[in-house]
Design goal:
Blueprint (H helix, E strand, L loop, with lengths): L1 E2 L4 H22 L6 E5 L12 E4 L4 E10 L4 E9 L10 E6 L2 E7 L10 E10 L4 E8 L5 E5 L1 E9 L7
Length: about 170
């Protein structure tokens, strides 16, 4: 199930995911709350250079969007939803997510680009631990391709203070 905006339910999903990350990071890194920061997910956190843009070359099948990227040491990630900025044809209709070589999620995202806010939040956010590999594949059921298909992942990062943010 998913929610199409940051309303009360969507905000609760985000807050719960953030709290879970903070608890996990505090425990596993043996840090106090003042030694930890939470921030928005960036493309670089998933091994993507630059912007949330993908080269969709596979037609009528899956193509790899994130290829076995490893979460950095002292960092924990939650993927809570996606934003699809395109209002025209959406090529990616489903996501397959592997955590450490096991498929852990299939998220259907077809039609997100026509929702009011072009976004959805999942009621089952995915959490990733430090040093854990992740692979994300997108399904393109069409015969079209795009060298700059944008799918923005909405998420949170909890990490040791000073890695990226000092305050």
């Amino acid at each position: 199930m998913f929610y199409p905006k940051f309303d009360i339910v969507g905000l609760e999903i985000h807050k719960a995911a953030r709290l879970k990350l903070q608890e996990k990071a505090t425990k596993e890194l043996n840090l106090g709350p003042d030694d930890l920061v939470t921030r928005a997910l960036r493309p670089e956190d998933l091994g993507i250079t630059g912007r949330w843009s993908f080269n969709v070359t596979s037609t009528s099948g899956y193509h790899t969007m994130v290829d076995a990227a490893t979460v950095s040491n002292n960092r924990f990630i939650s993927i809570e939803g996606i934003f699809y900025p395109k209002s025209s044809a959406q090529l990616i209709t489903q996501l397959e997510i592997k955590r450490a070589e096991s498929i852990v999620r299939y998220w259907t995202i077809q039609g997100v680009n026509f929702l009011e806010n072009n976004m959805i939040l999942f009621d089952d956010p995915l959490t990733l631990d430090q040093n854990q590999p992740i692979t994300i594949k997108g399904y393109n059921p069409t015969t079209s391709t795009n060298t700059a298909e944008e799918v923005v992942f909405i998420g949170t990062v909890a990490e040791k203070k000073g890695i990226l943010v000092n305050d």
